Amino acid sequence: MTDPKNWKPETRAAQALGWVDQETGAIVPPLHTATTYEREADLTYPRGPIYTRADNPTYRQPEELMASLEGGAKALLFSSGMAAVASAFQALNAGDHVVAPSAGYYGVRHWLSEHGARSGLSTDFVEPGDISALRAAVIPGKTKAVWIETPANPVWTITDIRAAADIAHEAGAWLGVDNTVPTPVLTQPIEFGADVVMHSATKYLGGHGDVLAGVLVLREQGELADRIEAIRHDAGAVLGPFESWLLLRGMRTLFLRVNTASINAERVAAFLKDHPAVERVLYPGLPDFPGHDVAARQMSGGFGGMLSVCLAGGQEAAVGAAARLKVFKRATSLGGVESLVEHRASIEGPDTPTPENLLRLSVGIESADDLVADWEQALDGV
């Protein structure tokens, strides 16, 4: 039990793999802001770092911790979640085919449609959660990457990770999974066959709304990992040392925050689903939610802190309810300690598939009683 590798994930996260500074005994890591490092007279770098675009001691701990929590061989920090996504797809070759969800995080669809297409990638977008459609879209020998997001933002559709992995691997493709919402606290996609796991670390991993970051975790050390790391280096998409330090600080409370948010989200969902002003509640934790059984197999210990509610009175009712909320703050993003509400369709624009009466909720770690009471008063006027 003295080896951190044998510790439970909660302990590995809280103690950042048990790291203690050997020089000072500090249990909080120092922040290395240096951009360059001394070279020896024989032109070598025996201490490791050369230039901070390639390496920095402050990067190593959060990367090692993420690889440990996700069960991967290597983790790479990026300047944002989209920088991580883009680097993964840039590791493909012109002419390669990608299959990705037609609904989910807007930035992924936009990047593949605009930038991916210009770089020679072809993409078929399929309904998230539809394994038959996914299988039909994959072209053996041509499809090189399959991307899924589960639960899929903002309607939280569930995709069977193991089934998607089998389809991808049979065709000679790698499977990438956006694991931002469940985090490794609830789901470890590599366990179900994923090859690449992405996090918008701005969200739950950082957890405090004060760091922009992304992470990729690779199942294996090998050509794909090497290509992605080289792209990060050459494009300069690496995270800064201060942001890396903030990210590690946030990750140490990850399990406490995600577990509390999951419990609170279940309370809020249970209240909203029976309210007469509510058309429907979209939350994988509800027994009648489509995909609940698959989610229960893939998500251990809870169903996360994200849910959406569709108001019976349409967009006007949704926007009005959001305006009356006091504890929930009207803001983009998710995964912080505070609860947020967002009218998602107005953010995504006219081509969005998101219903106009939908409000996306990021449930935080406040008192569940206060969160429910906030919704109770907000819906009084609907």
Characteristic terms for this protein:
single chain, 382 residues, alpha/beta, Aspartate Aminotransferase, domain 2, Aspartate Aminotransferase, domain 1, 7-stranded mixed β-sheet, 5-stranded mixed β-sheet, 12 strands, 37% helix
Task: Describe what you observe in this structure.
With 382 residues, the chain is α/β, with parallel strands linked by helices. The chain has 2 domains: 4-251, Type I PLP-dependent aspartate aminotransferase-like (Major domain) (Aspartate Aminotransferase, domain 2); 256-379, Aspartate Aminotransferase, domain 1 (Alpha-Beta Complex). 37% of the residues lie in helices and 15% in strands. It contains 14 helices and 12 strands. The protein has helices at 9-14, 57-70, 81-90, 106-118, 131-137, 161-170, 183-186, 223-235, 241-251, 254-273, 292-298, 314-324, 344-348, 368-379, and strands spanning 74-78, 97-101, 122-126, 143-149, 174-178, 196-199, 214-218, 278-282, 306-311, 329-330, 340-342, 358-362. Strand 2 (97-101), helix 4 and strand 3 form a beta-alpha-beta unit. The mean pLDDT is 95.
What's the SSE blueprint?
Layout (H helix, E strand, L loop, with lengths): L8 H6 L42 H14 L3 E5 L2 H10 L6 E5 L4 H13 L3 E5 L4 H7 L5 E7 L11 H10 L3 E5 L4 H4 L9 E4 L14 E5 L4 H13 L5 H11 L2 H20 L4 E5 L9 H7 L7 E6 L2 H11 L4 E2 L9 E3 L1 H5 L9 E5 L5 H12 L3
Parallel strand pairs: 2-3, 2-4, 4-5, 5-6, 10-11
Antiparallel strand pairs: 1-7, 6-7, 8-9, 9-12, 11-12
Helix pairs in contact: 2-9, 3-4, 3-8, 10-14, 12-14
